[in-house]
Specification:
about 300 residues; alpha/beta; eight-stranded mixed sheet; 14 strands
Length: about 300
């Protein structure tokens, strides 16, 4: 079982140009998209979050159930669902404005236990920024790591939600000893101001950096570096592409029984090449479709 911990929200996606274009609601949130993608790939998955009892919250849970994701660890509240208004530029890249005050997901509390059979826990995006939930997710990350579970982190920086950039960067560095696999975009890496080698020295066994359409690179503790090119595709938008990479990496490691630091160290050039190539193909399919619509296993072929 792979547990994905973090927010579920509604993306409001513009259906045309301009600030007053019509907005279409879509199920979203980085962790939510990761959970859906894992479910579509066939990995046993559970979602650990807090959602509203409102209609959006019910739709979010239905979306998880439809992909086979376990939702028994989802907390509920009467507060409204978080909204993220997307803006799509000429290259299909998405930027977001968030409506988060008093919403259900940021009131997450530390659960008594994780779902049975948990082998890995994935964290990231807004859930590690918005208090008081951010501190609860941070505690869960440290607890999972202390219990020997594989932990994955995608900071997925949303700078508009971070009031004190230096404080967040310091907090990010404190997370690293509890992280097995760090995945982040080139833009995230630039904003954080560190390097893969510096982050590896602080704790993770591997760091994967995405380069948009130019592919992915993995850095490992033994000094190795493995890269694959991106898959060429007509980009509709990039919503959910990074989340799909998260899911593809975790699914691929699970299939290889490699959800441990020792197994990561033994992947080698062939193993990393296949894993990164699989993630690149999965992300390309997501980019070819509007909104966060990650692929099913049947669309990807062999890993």
């Amino acid at each position: 079982m792979i547990v994905v911990a973090g927010e579920a929200l509604i993306d409001l996606v513009p259906q045309g140009p301009g600030a007053l274009a019509g907005l279409k609601p879509a199920l979203g949130g980085g962790p939510y998209n990761t959970a859906v993608a894992l479910g579509r790939l066939g990995s046993p998955t559970a979602f650990c979050s807090r959602t509203s009892y409102d209609a959006f919250g019910e739709a979010l849970l239905d979306g998880l159930r439809q992909t086979g994701v376990e939702v028994s660890a989802v907390q509920r509240g009467v507060e409204p669902t978080t909204l993220a208004v997307a803006t799509i530029d000429g290259n299909g890249s998405a930027a977001y404005s968030f409506y988060v005050e008093g919403t259900a997901d940021r009131l997450f509390t530390v659960p008594d236990r994780l779902p049975a059979g948990a082998r890995a826990v994935s964290f990231g995006t807004c859930s590690l920024v918005l208090e008081p939930g951010a501190s609860a997710y941070e505690e869960l990350m440290r607890t999972a790591a202390a219990q020997g579970l594989f932990t994955a982190l995608d900071p997925n920086i949303r700078a508009g939600l971070i009031p004190d950039a230096d404080a967040y960067r310091a907090r990010f560095e404190r997370w690293l000893p509890s992280v097995s696999l760090l995945k982040l975009s080139e833009e995230d890496a630039q904003w954080l101001g560190g390097t893969p080698r510096e982050w590896l020295a602080a704790g993770p066994s591997a760091v994967v950096v995405t380069h948009g359409g130019d592919g992915l690179t993995a850095f490992t503790r033994d000094g190795a570096e493995y890269s694959v090119p991106g898959e060429k595709v007509d980009v509709v938008d990039t919503i959910g592409a990074g989340d799909t990479v998260n899911a593809a990496l975790l699914h691929g490691l699970s299939v290889r029984n490699a959800l441990s630091p020792e197994a990561l160290a033994g992947l080698g050039a062939d193993g990393w090449g296949r894993l990164l190539g699989f993630a690149a193909r999965a992300a390309a399919i997501t980019c070819s479709r509007a909104g966060a619509e990650p692929p099913y296993a049947s669309e990807l072929g062999e890993m």
